[in-house]
Amino acid sequence: IESGKFTLQPESVLLNELVKDSMVLNRAFADRFGVELQLRDEAPDTTVNADRKRLLQVMTNLISNAAKFSPKGGRVDVGIAQSDGMVTVTVEDRGPGIPAEFRSRIFSRFAQADSAYTRQKGGTGLGLAICKRLIELMDGSVGFRDRPGGGTVFFFELPLLQQPATAS
To answer: What is the 3-state secondary structure (H, E, C) of 23-54?
Structure first.
């Protein structure tokens, strides 16, 4: 990606289907951590112009991170919402949250919060940096916020694919 030799293969993607597929693909991983995956909000007929394979990669990373950092018996909520020509996909965990001193570096390469809890969960610290770059290459943005009641909400936004008007 950094060398500029990486190319996307954009296509028209039904986001609801892709999100549901990603939840099915990651259910076994969530089960390993004793975490339930739940689709909270849907936006039927929401279409984006994106690289399907890479968007699945982003969803897998966000869902697997949420499952890893959620308490056993917890739940990861996934949602899709439309607003002002954009679609937002959210992945909410009920984990410990993001330490204040780490927030500015969370999307940096090789970044991991420095705690025994985080090191125990494993990973390279590349997943969120890759997600950020992939979403940006698809003309979107990525971010996070605290979840009311504890945990973190990671989200990405992509422009909706404008459907051609049908002739009357």
So the answer is: HHHHHHHHHHCCCEEEEEECCCCCEEEECHHH
